[in-house]
Design a protein that fits this description.
The chain is built from 1 helix and 23 strands. By secondary structure, it is mainly beta. It has one domain: Neuraminidase, CATH 2.120.10.30. The strands form 6 sheets. Strands 2, 3, 4, 5 and 6 form a 5-stranded antiparallel β-sheet that branches. A 4-stranded antiparallel β-sheet has the order 1-23-22-21, with no helix packed on it. The protein has a 4-stranded antiparallel β-sheet with strand order 7-8-9-10, with no helix packed on it. A hairpin with a 2-residue loop joins strand 4 and strand 5. The protein is globular. It starts with 5 loop residues before the first helix and ends with a strand. The N terminus is likely disordered.
Length: about 280
């Protein structure tokens, strides 16, 4: 009997499940816009991007758990008056990557990193990742991998569309690499994450300028590149407008997170939802 295809595995794992569940309503999911959670390795703290929360602008907020209670969300110490967004923890939990349009970068939205003490949760000063990753255009949604790469999107490195997905080595030199035509198309491809198997890529794709539907797509490595992408089926992609911000919690291999505007399911303009993981 032939092995099931990736699409069949995903479909079997996602169909006939409960609808997407909001993530910590009233704490993380609010009437504002919430996108892309990042979970500390000890499970005590969650970071995420928000638009329209107190303080205005694009902020990175954090809540931490003491026993069963979660703290009131507050901006992280490295969040500033400019737009800061899309946090992601490194595999060892000691670094948080994000993007910002703060002064002093290469231009537009740039990728940054900040060290975090796992014992105290304290953050150090932020640092720009420099011209190897950043351009005068916009770089978004940095995703560090366990093998030392950084996956991100950019409209400043060339490619197949506007925002394309790239990867670069965090140690050493070398130019960043486009993830290729199996992933990138003629529109915007961005907000990528690797699922718990460390191989399968989920990302957002659509035309942001035309404000048309943005959907979550899935692709698996194939022959040194990526297999042609397919659409992630229900209960992901619950919105007819924008679905983005895919993420995982390293302590919960059964769960997958993403952001969408689903007014019958969540309280805000865009909420973070959890659904069963697409990878068994």
């Amino acid at each position: 009997m032939p092995s099931p295809t990736l699409a069949a595995i995903v479909l079997a794992g996602l169909l006939a499940t409960d609808p997407p569940a909001p993530l910590l309503p009233g704490i993380i999911d609010t009437p504002a816009t919430e996108v892309r959670p990042a979970f500390s390795l000890d499970g005590r703290c969650v970071l995420w991007g928000t638009i329209g929360a107190p303080g205005t602008g694009w902020r990175i907020l954090q809540t931490c758990r003491d026993g069963e209670a979660w703290s009131k969300p507050e901006p992280v110490s490295f969040d500033g008056p400019d737009n800061d967004f899309d946090p992601a923890f490194s595999a060892d939990g000691r670094t948080v990557y994000f993007f910002s349009n703060r002064p002093g970068g290469q231009g537009g939205d740039d990728l940054y990193a900040v060290d975090r003490d796992p014992a105290t949760g304290a953050f150090g000063p932020s640092r720009n990742l420099g011209p190897r990753f950043n351009t005068p255009g916009d770089e978004w949604a940095p995703t560090p991998t366990a093998d030392g790469r950084l996956i991100f999107s950019s409209n400043g490195h060339g490619g197949f569309g506007d925002q394309d997905l790239f990867e670069g080595d965090l140690t050493g030199g070398g130019a960043v690499r486009n993830l290729g035509p199996g992933v990138n198309g003629p529109q915007d491809d961005f907000d990528a994450t690797l699922l718990h198997d460390g191989r399968t890529l989920v990302f957002a794709s659509g035309d942001l300028k035309a404000d048309t539907r943005v959907t979550l797509r899935i692709s698996r490595p194939l022959n040194g590149g990526y297999a042609p992408r397919t659409t992630l089926p229900a209960p992901a992609n619950c919105s007819d407008a924008i679905n983005n911000g895919p993420a995982i919690d390293p302590r919960r291999p059964d769960v997958f997170y993403y952001s969408a505007h689903c007014p019958t399911l969540g309280p805000g303009r865009m909420d973070i939802f959890e659904v069963p993981s697409p990878v068994p």
